[in-house]
UniProtKB/TrEMBL annotation:
Keyword Hydrolase: yes
Protein name, UniProt field: Phosphoserine phosphatase
Enzyme Commission number(s) from the entry: 3.1.3.3
Reactions accelerated catalytically: O-phospho-L-serine + H2O = L-serine + phosphate; O-phospho-D-serine + H2O = D-serine + phosphate
Catalytic residues in the record: D7 (nucleophile), D9 (proton donor)
Known pathway: Amino-acid biosynthesis; L-serine biosynthesis; L-serine from 3-phospho-D-glycerate: step 3/3
Pfam families named in the record: Hydrolase (PF00702)
GO process terms (BP): L-serine biosynthetic process
Any Gene Ontology CC annotation: cytoplasm
InterPro entries noted in UniProt: HAD-like_SerB, HAD-like_sf, HAD_sf, PSP
Cofactors named for this entry: Mg(2+)
Species: Helicobacter ganmani
Amino acid sequence: MKLAVFDFDSTLMDGETIDLLARANNSEAEVSKITKEAMAGQLDFYDSLKKRVATLKGMPLEKVYAVCNHLRYNPGAKELIAELKTRDYKIVVFSGGFDEAVSAGQKALGYDMYFSNILHRKNNILTGEVGGEMMFAYSKGRILEKLQILLNATYETTIVVGDGANDISMFKYASKKVAFCANIVLQEAANIIIDKKDLMLIKTYLD
């Protein structure tokens, strides 16, 4: 089984979902500062995630969906996923972001499965808390290892694509480690570096 695993925010999607939600909730400046520290590996992912989501407390769920249903995707995202399907890859997204965005992305781009986090809500209002499958810096690697066993995929038949420090954990399990418009922390762990914002440039490296 050939397996392609993508990060979502700033990899398939153009930007960070949490920043877009914060902008809609007037907490953008606070969240932006925390996001930059986290992506550069200067702040623990779990702590930074909780801090960022806390700024969304009181946001109506309908406003969350309004943002997530109008996301912009990076050039080549849909085309690369279509190309991967013609080559018999299973395509999975691992996101430290949120189900509301990644499920919208699945409808738009057509990937097979995703793992993400969930914004807690009560009476359709965000509580400022978060939970899910991608809460820690090691989560992506841990889930990828399990997924490879389930799908009978191997190190040699797996390609991973990401942009930030929390993608490093999944690089260990893939022969093709793609840093896409990534920070220096991830570039140093990669063996394929794409600096131009065009996901179809990855096509050259596919089997």
